[in-house]
Each structure stands twice: as structure tokens, then as C-alpha cells.
Amino acid sequence: MKPRQAQRPALRIGLIGQKFMGKAHSNAWSQAAKFFDLKRRIELGTIAARDARSLEAFAQRFGWAHSTGDWRELARDPEIDLVDIGTPNDVHAEQALECLAAKKHVACEKPLAGTLADARAMRDAARMAKKQRTFVWFNYRRAPAIALAWQLLREKRFGKVIHVRARYLQGWGGPKTPMSWRFQKKIAGSGAHGDLNAHIVDLARFLTGDELREIHGAVARTFVAQRSVAGSSRKSKSDVDDCVAFLASFRGGATASFEATRLAPGHFNDNTIEINAERGSLRFSFEMMNVLEVFDANEDRRLQGWKSIQCTVGGEHPYAENWWPEGHVLGYEHGFINQAADIVRVLSGEAPIVPLPDFADAYETQRVLEAALISARERTSIDLDSVR
């Protein structure tokens, strides 16, 4: 008798990219079926990347059956079911459009694209696809604490949301950081804004279940205009934002503030969001990713106070039952693994544990990012209905 896993239909993955996200995605696809009971077995088919010198070794290390320097081979390969895009922002659209045209499911890194026009083209192509599904790697949705916050807000136990306060602060992007594609507008589209604000805008939309209506004001600044080129004495122009902050309102009436920077020493990956509602508040910081802080104003006033909930109780907290005994915490990589498992669930006809963002969903986040940059440039409020 064949092992149960071998009897399941295969989902054969192709991945584009072998750097930071290539590692995170490769690990996720290789681990998901080991911890989640999935109806399809995951096969790591082909990885494509530009650096041919290191690609073969990367493929062997992470378990890919084949490697290629031509990403279009993934679109042409009839054995590949899903193409996962982990490349710089400027090529997301070209790669996604070709793979969708080749009848592949597509998963794509965030932000959806470097420009709103590219993001729109991706959304429209996904809409035209009849059988393919699309996914976007907003991986922080898959932290058990965030998934629990989503569940609590869906239960309406705290009433109407009044205010959202979100920030994403990192400190690695100072003047001594050399030039990379993340500091080039033609490749990245934006700086801290697309890299970091994209995540917290997605979390705000996801948790509240509401859409942004208006950007009331924004500020964007570039503080490091020149960066050294690695391996030389030359300097190169850095033309992306280093810091972006903006105020906004949701269609349901809640107000919101967002701020992002990679110039905040002492903040390593400070992705923090707080939701204030009529009868309570929720607060999450990724630097304490296993904890959800909750203030419940429904409680006896004598006993009210912030609770720190360790979201690692199997059977009670989202995703926790698939991992370790209670209190054995999860890390950064687990959000990607949880998302890979949910993608396989969807492609097996099952529901994900919490909703997955697709291209249409991620396009709404891209509209907010674009509106904030327009607001900063024109020094005025921007109605989201005017940004299409």
C-alpha cells in the first residue's frame, strides 16, 4: 500500500526568486505538509532566478527538483500548477500576467506591484481568469495573534471600531546602508511606504473589514539621498521615501493613522497595530508576535486592564494546534508556512483558517498607498474614489 501522502493529488510549485523571499517561500512550501493535514501533496518543481552561479546550490539546499535562469519556463511547463513570485516589485506584473495567461495559479509578494497601473493590470487579468486563483503574501495575517484579533472583531464583542493606529518601524536603512533595489524608485516603486505601510494598511483593512474612504493628509520624506555602491567608492542616488505618515478615515467612520520608516534605530521589525472600539481595544506588535493585548471594557470596572494573551494554545488559537505544545512560541517563518497551508486548502476546495488576500484585495491596498503619496505630493486630502 502506498503512503497516504503519496496517494494525494500533487500541487506542483514553481518559484521565481532565491533571495530573502525566495528562502522564506521555499521553506514554507517544504514545511506546510509536514505540519498541516492537506488534501494535496506539495511538490517543489522548478525555481527560477537570475543568479545562475548560486541557483543550483540553492535549489539543492531547499529541495527544488529543477532550476532555471529563465522564469518563463515556469509558465510554459505543463507540470507546474502554481507560480510563486518572490521578485522585486517592478517585474511582478509581467511575470503574473504571463503565468495567468498560461493558466497557472499565481501567488505574489507584496506590494502587489511597483505602480498602481501595474497592480490594476494584475487585478484585471485575475478577474478574467476563469479557473486560476491568485494570492498575495501578506503573511502577517497568519500570525495566530492577528488571526485571533480578526475572530474577536468578527464576533462584535467590542462594538463598532472607532480608531486604528498603525506603525511599521525598522532601523536598518540608515546612511551606511549600501544601495540596493529597495532604494531605487524604478524598481521598488516606493521605499518604506510600499515595503512597510503596505503591510499595516492590509492589516487595518483585514481586521476592521472596512475600506479606507479618504486620506486627510500625508507627509513623505527622503533623508538619505545618496548611498554607497557595494564593492566600489561610488555613490548612487536613492530616490524613494525613507519615511511616510498619513491620516485617513474608513467608510464606516473610524479614523486611522499610519506611519512607516526604515530610519528608526532601536526598532528592528516593529509592526504594530491597535484597534480601539466602543467597548474595548486590541493591540499587536510583531516584535512580540505570539501575544495579543486585549482591553475588554465589558468587564467589571474593578478588574479592567490590558491582558496579554499568549496565542499558542492548540485547539483554541488559530494555527496553534498545528505546531508545538502550549507556550512553545512561533517565529517569523511560521506566518509563511501557515499561508502556504491555507493556499493549498483553497486549491483543494476548502476554506482557509482566515481569509487570504487575492489580487483584487491587494489592489485595494495599492490604491490607499497611491492616494497617500498623491496627498503628500499635492499637500491636500484625497478621496479614494478618485484613485482608480
Give the CATH H-level superfamily of the largest domain.
Answer: Dihydrodipicolinate Reductase, domain 2
The amount of beta strand, in percent, is 15-25%
Mean pLDDT: 96
Instruction: Tell me the structural class.
Output: alpha/beta
Task: Record the strand order, biggest sheet.
Answer: 16-15-14-13-7-12-11-8-17
Number of domain modules: 2
Q: Describe it for me?
A:
The protein is an alpha/beta fold. Helices cover 33% and strands 24% of the residues. The termini are far apart.
List the helices and strands and how they pair.
Layout: H1 4-7, E1 10-16, H2 20-35, E2 41-48, H3 52-62, E3 66-68, H4 72-76, E4 82-85, H5 92-101, E5 105-108, H6 116-128, E6 134-136, H7 144-154, E7 161-169, H8 185-188, H9 192-208, E8 212-221, E9 226-228, E10 235-237, E11 243-250, E12 255-261, E13 270-277, E14 280-285, E15 291-296, E16 307-310, H10 332-347, H11 359-378, E17 382-383
Parallel strand pairs: 1-2, 1-4, 2-3, 4-5, 5-6, 7-12
Antiparallel strand pairs: 7-13, 8-11, 8-17, 9-10, 11-12, 13-14, 14-15, 15-16
Main features:
single chain; 388 residues; alpha/beta; Rossmann fold; Dihydrodipicolinate Reductase, domain 2; 2 domains; 9-stranded mixed β-sheet; 11 helices; globular
